[in-house]
Specification:
alpha/beta; 6 strands; 162 residues; 46% helix; six-stranded mixed beta sheet; 6 helices
């Protein structure tokens, strides 16, 4: 894979929107490294939802991404990125680490559907937190001007549009 373009695919959407299901399959089918702050949080604390060591989680996640790029790999990064300023900061860092093409996959799923999916999860996100994240992403949805080469919108059926 050395010598090929280093691509970053980031998932953007609230819990229960289908990000992880889609992105793990995408990474596997394209041979990309898969990085998830939730997985790192679970490694460090034993709990995917435990937020006390968030700064450390994100430092590790970004270091892993940087290392993959240095090895010439492409990366799928699975996080919510509901705040625009966090997306922009992350995209800027990814470019500094060597990402040459960054695609955002925005999982635009109605809150009610995400809430129903969330109830069946092993570690459900609290209802009020899910509603707050939905409000934040709808107030500042992802767009190419944030530094993304492309933004693809994925609906509740997993249908993608550009």
């Amino acid at each position: 894979m050395l010598g090929s373009m280093k691509k970053l695919v980031i998932g953007i959407g609230i819990p229960g929107s289908g990000k992880t299901t889609f992105l793990t399959q995408y990474a596997k089918s394209h041979g990309y490294a898969y990085i998830s702050p939730d997985d790192i949080r679970e490694e460090l604390t034993g709990d995917r939802l435990h937020q006390a060591r968030n700064a450390e989680v994100w430092q590790l996640a970004e270091a892993r991404m940087r290392d993959r790029f240095q090895e010439g790999e492409s990366v799928v990064f699975d996080a919510t990125f509901v705040r625009g300023y966090e997306r922009r900061s992350f995209i800027e860092a990814a470019r500094a680490y060597g990402a040459e093409c960054i695609e955002g996959y925005y999982f635009d799923v109605p809150l009610e559907i995400a809430q129903k999916r969330n109830i069946g999860r092993e570690n459900p996100v609290r209802h009020h937190a899910l509603a707050r994240m939905d409000r934040l992403i709808r107030e500042d949805p992802p767009r190419a001007s944030e530094g993304l080469n492309s933004v693809f919108v994925v609906n509740e059926e997993g249908v993608i549009r550009n």
